[in-house]
Amino acid sequence: MSVAQPTWLNSGDNAWQLTAGTLVALQSIPGLVILYAGLVKRRWAINSAFMAFYGFAATLICWVIWAYKASFGKQMLPFVGVPGPVLTMNDELTQAVLPAAKITAAFPLSTMVYFQFVFAAITIVILAGGFLCRMNIHAWMVFVPLWITLSYTVGAFSLWGGGFLQQRGVIDYSGGYVIHVSSGTAGFVGAYWIGPRLDSDRLDHKPHNILLVLVGAGILWNGWNGFNGGDPYAASTDAGAAVLNTNIATAMSALVWIMWDTIYYKKPSVLGGVNGMITGLVAITPAAGVVAGWGAIIIGLVSGSIPWVSMNIAGKKLSLFQHVDDTLGVFHTHLVAGVCGGFLVGIFSTSEDGNGKQIGWQLAGACFVIGWNTVWTSLILLFIKYVLRIPLRMSEVDLLIGDDAIHGEDAYSFDYPEKPIRNGGGNSPPVDASDSSGRKIEVV
Fold this sequence. Notes:
By secondary structure, the chain is mainly α. The protein is about 65% helix and about 5% strand. It folds into two domains: about 15-385, Ammonium transporter fold, CATH 1.10.3430.10; about 395-410 and about 425-444, no CATH class.
């Protein structure tokens, strides 16, 4: 029995939007789950993957109960909407309309809610990269819903939902500010409040599985076609241009980063190529659908250079970056790259907004996102620590043991006789420690 479709529904647009949303979801799970697990030491693989997995799931429940409407609903304040649920069939089957943002889509609200959710989810997963290998998992479980509610919704509404920055013409095509500047800021600020990893982990931070990193990176790169290609909200010419520009800038950025590694360190680096890929993806995100191919190449050139200097020169010489233990360098790969992309929108935009005034508004938008996330990430973590009395950092014993203490699980559980869990070699003397169940474990 066939069911009559509403006249406003465009099946092609709906199919593409659901596909694009799924591609973005795959960037988080399994993309960043795999990438994080590979980038850290073996004893942190489970916990790092779990933080991403939990963040994805918890964000969705917050999103459908209150956060979507706070981000895209009726305006409550100039920077946030009225929170509320979108869980009835009447909501889900009606046409997706965002009056404040002047958007009427040819697909249902349920599709829009899902598409916007995967953007919120990857934001929380990205910022987790600054907290890995020492954040108390219970603090993380409380942090996720609070941060989505008090930080993410504000950026989303201000720039996409009809808020004051969008009204003033600030361009963030697909999340350079809403996602990357906010996550880079929150990851760095949160790393300060949580405290550093063990000194041994900071000194010896070689990834335990680089091939796993490359698998995650490949999912991230290809999934970005949905990230930027889905934001015209239609299977349109703009979607095609955004996808092509995304890949052009990313390839250019990766090659430039590899070039700088080769010049400075005398050898190309796989991890450097991955960092260049990420900064290219981030920098083109605010501009993907509003620049031409030549603009995408120049954005890739800049995103492969300025974040490289930030990470490899400033990150190793300035005391601030030695004091704040940003595990995966999200400050450099997301905050710096996101600001670069947002600034370059004002220069290379093919619309009439590409002028000096636009550059000023782009910088103002970045300052607002950085300031808001600095304040609210700090307040949330201080609330968890001092009001809820949940430590932000694991105990020293759990830091020595890792996954087995936190989850009672091992990333590679082969059917061998149980042996002591070891901390990746080195010349340190054995240390007696106990896991969460009191079992004695020798840690080297």
